[in-house]
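Q: Can someone sanity-check these two? First one:
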Amino acid sequence: AGIKVLAARLDGVDPKSLRDTLDQLKDKLGSGVVVLAAESDGKVSLAAGVTKDLTDRFKAGDLIREVAAQVGGKGGGRPDMAQAGGNDPAGIPAALELVPRWVQERIQA
């Protein structure tokens, strides 16, 4: 529906670098929804971002809660940026696959 969605895995990246990368990707996309996941030492770090022009339709905090549930974690944040952690790295593929569906459901709502 014309909304760019990026969901990617970047293993070995610390949470701060994940946030920095998220900001860079949001800038490059211009408009869109981004979710990044990283595994380090058996722990999962997640970051979600929504560009400012879309925060009235999509909330990063809502998205991160759904995604984090897939990796046995929870999180929260602002409408434009949110973070979470989890302890089930095996759930990362399912978590990333959930992102486009989540966006699509919000478009149709």
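And here is the second, same format, sequence then tokens:
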Amino acid sequence: MVMKNITIGEFIVESQNNFPGSSGELSKILSAIKLASKIVSHHINKAGLAKEILGSSGAENIQGEDQQKLDIFANDKFINALSARGVICGVASEENDSYIAFNDKVNTQAKYVVLIDPLDGSSNIDVNVSVGTIFSVFRRKSNLGEKVQLEDFLQSGDEQVAAGYLIYGSSTMLVYST
């Protein structure tokens, strides 16, 4: 058997071809996660050199944990990348008090929501311990064209469409399941 090296983008597209009738929406979500993770990984890898991105932001997240500057940075990058694809109607992040509904015309027609912890373990960066991103994708419960609802995010694990994590370190590793 001959193994060939392919990029994660190529792998996602090739995997999509294994599911006749797939629309490409899940591939776009994974592509957005890939893009944001590359940006986050780059910043994490220079954290020891660029002191302005290390440390506390002075705020707490919904869990009562001290938000790190990199938490806020990662949160912004993932939300921006996911919303720009036009394939999710909302996102729930550990870094926000409530879910974010994307109310533009394209995103209200989207079938999916994403739940994410953009930078899990961010307080470990100062001591050079691995950090990561955790995500989960669900089909929305509310009607297409309507504003996303809380019920869209409060679903059981067996209703997941995809889930995964990224580990940032000397290299970045993405593991996901669909």
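A (reply): Looked at the second one. The helical segments are 8-16, 25-45, 69-84. Residues 25-45 form the longest helix (21 residues).
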